Amino acid sequence: MKQISLIVGSNGKNLILAKAFQEHLEGLGHKVHLVDLVSHNLPLYSPAQNGQKTGAEVLAPFKDALASEAFVFIAPEYNGGIPPVLNNFIAWASTSAKDWRIYFNAKKAAIATHSGGDGQQLLIMLRLQLSYIGMTVVGRQININDRKPIDPATIADVCKQLLS
Question: Model pTM greater than 0.85?
């Protein structure tokens, strides 16, 4: 049994997609942390935050989620890129410990999106960013929209790659 975190960078349809992942992974017997970043309303990271709040304080509610063995990042494309709430979470994580890479380095990640457009820019940029912070991003990704619904077989295949 693995511990897997689903990091969701929006509510609505991406949260529905995250719950499909959660149902599948829990059905396989894994422990899943679903982190809805929008509902947590993290303060905006800025160097000006230094001295006011530390990354460790801000991310305390995510301690168990950050200790996961694998991650699924689920977010919409936002102006051709990564939504600010997800970027903000990663920025806080990068200031939360002396060796913050322990959260991500050499861990597997899968990426998925439900976007109004085609979501390709998000998937490309998120793959680059997660690789940069040391994660191994699986090859298969999920890209759905209102015209292309969730396919349980695709979720199963992405999870199989994530867990292998």
Answer: yes
